[in-house]
Design goal:
This protein is of the alpha/beta class and 242 residues long. The chain contains seven helices and twelve strands. The protein is elongated, with a radius of gyration of 33 Å.
Length: 242
């Protein structure tokens, strides 16, 4: 019994023993912090990888960031992401990631033009979200939508539904009518107006119910192929001028 009592007393750690049991887990922390500060000057950006963009635009992004040779922890990622979006309208979204020890990855998505928006004598590219993001460089073979008025001349965005309808209308006119329009115009008050290469004018109205009106247009043209003006807006279905 006496031996057992002595053994139990030896197993009980004192204050220092209990303190060491807790403190030993924190001893590596200052060592790690010291190592980080000691190695910090060596953590500089050696390469910037840009993904999701054309080689030309990727090179412009790398040049704009100018991160090579700078400390890995010295740049503000959210600030640089916003700066890239403001400087490069062709970029839809961007994310910058640090890849330790010495690389930076830029993951970006480029805007894809689906439509050319013509406002007066100026033409602009529009993406599927309706964002008007930069002047159109010549004829790209994209559907063209002309501003028919009643819109904000400073608007930076079109209604995405209007963009989708315009793209669909161009496709239908080519597939079902076998023509490439001379002009497709849109205004909030009058809707879509198509002018053919021969000068025929088809007033189709707003996007809602447009499929039905296009089907009616096809029937009208079967009976009156030479009709000069056909108005299918609202409840007014008929030939305005032959």
């Amino acid at each position: 019994m006496a031996d057992r009592a002595r053994l139990s007393r030896r197993r009980r750690p004192g204050f220092l023993g209990r303190f060491w049991r807790v403190a030993r887990w924190f001893v590596p922390i200052p060592v790690v912090i010291g190592a980080v500060f000691a190695l910090y000057p060596r953590w500089v950006v050696a390469a910037v990888e840009v993904q999701g963009l054309s080689p030309e635009l990727a090179g412009q992004v790398r040049a704009a960031l100018s991160l090579e040779g700078k400390p890995m922890l010295d740049f503000d990622r959210p600030y640089l992401e916003k700066a890239l979006l403001a400087r490069f309208p062709d970029i839809k979204s961007v994310r910058i990631t640090r890849v330790l020890p010495n690389r930076v990855r830029v993951e970006a998505e480029a805007r894809k033009p689906v439509l050319v928006w013509q406002r007066g004598t100026q033409s602009f590219l529009v993406d599927e979200d309706g964002v008007i993001y930069r002047p159109a460089p010549g004829d790209l073979g994209l559907p063209r939508l002309v501003d028919g008025g009643n819109g904000d001349p400073a608007a930076a965005r079109l209604d995405p539904a209007t963009v989708r309808t315009a793209v669909w209308l161009w496709q239908v006119l080519g597939d079902q009518f076998g023509l490439r329009p001379a002009r497709v115009e849109y205004a909030a008050m009058t809707g879509f107006v198509v002018t053919t290469p021969t000068g025929q004018v088809w007033r189709l109205g707003q996007g809602e119910g447009l499929e039905e009106r296009v089907a009616i247009l096809r029937e009208v043209l079967t009976r009156e192929p030479g009709a000069r003006v056909i108005d299918l807006r609202g409840g007014r279905f008929g030939i305005v001028r032959r």
